[in-house]
């Protein structure tokens, strides 16, 4: 049974953050994302609510952990800039591989229109992507490709990055609908390449 109030020192020094995360995954798999409340997570994880708030601001902050725990701002990409489609596919596959590790049941419940955390992370605020997100890194990579003459210098890289994000979200949704039976990497690669081709220098 969870307790309210500040966490004991012993609770903070233990790995309760991971316990909360693991419990959240299991609750989403079993009951769906709508079931999640701070109280339900704390009860299932057997931690005090104060312990929860020591690590996370609220439920949305907990949920967004699952898409922000990769630092896209400085992640190393092996595909050269000259293969910009392959490079952007590699970038997004870092995120998709994380999704796949969480499992199809988790993703079916997590990847919904009601998930405010996902919408916030994969959206635009004041015309910009949040720093460190996959979309912001994608836009930077596309800007470098435009500077290098790989795609048109006049390409609207912000819109192109937003389009690619929409493409990937659609591919993940389709992957969920197919219960993970389709080859998401091939699908993402094919459609990203098709979209970027419209901006290539001929």
Question: Mind explaining what this structure looks like?
Answer:
By secondary structure, this protein is mainly alpha-helical. It has two domains: 9-56, Arc Repressor Mutant, subunit A (Orthogonal Bundle); 67-197. It is 63% helix and 0% strand. The termini are far apart.
Tell me the domain tally.
2
Number of continuous helical runs: 11
Low-confidence spans: pLDDT under 50, at least 5 residues? none
- Overall 3D geometry? elongated
Order of helices and strands, N to C?
A: HHHHHHHHHHH
User: Helical proportion?
Assistant: 55-70%
- Determine the strand fraction and express it as a percent band: under 5%
Oligomer: single chain
Mean of pLDDT = 86
Briefly summarize what is shown:
With 202 residues, this protein is mainly alpha-helical. The chain is built from eleven helices and no strands. It starts with 8 loop residues before the first helix and ends in a 5-residue tail after the last helix.
What are the SSEs and their pairings?
Blueprint: H1 9-13, H2 16-31, H3 38-45, H4 49-55, H5 59-68, H6 84-102, H7 104-110, H8 116-121, H9 134-147, H10 157-177, H11 184-197
């Amino acid at each position: 049974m969870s307790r309210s109030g500040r966490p004991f020192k012993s609770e903070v020094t233990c790995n309760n953050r991971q316990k909360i995360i693991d419990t959240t995954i299991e609750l989403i798999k079993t009951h769906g994302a709508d079931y999640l409340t701070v109280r339900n997570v704390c009860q299932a994880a057997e931690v005090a609510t104060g312990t929860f708030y020591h690590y996370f601001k609220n439920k949305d902050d907990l949920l967004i952990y699952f898409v922000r725990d990769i630092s896209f701002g400085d992640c190393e990409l092996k595909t050269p800039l000259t293969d910009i489609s392959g490079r952007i596919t590699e970038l997004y596959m870092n995120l998709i591989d994380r999704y796949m590790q969480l499992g199809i049941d988790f993703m079916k419940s997590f990847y919904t229109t009601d998930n405010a955390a996902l919408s916030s992370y994969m959206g635009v605020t004041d015309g910009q992507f949040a720093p460190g997100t996959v979309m912001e890194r994608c836009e930077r990579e596309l800007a470098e490709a435009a500077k290098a003459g790989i795609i048109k210098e006049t390409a609207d890289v912000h819109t192109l990055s937003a389009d690619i994000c929409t493409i990937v979200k659609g591919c993940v949704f389709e992957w969920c609908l197919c219960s993970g039976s389709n080859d998401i990497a091939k699908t993402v690669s094919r459609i990203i390449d098709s979209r970027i081709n419209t901006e290539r220098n001929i």
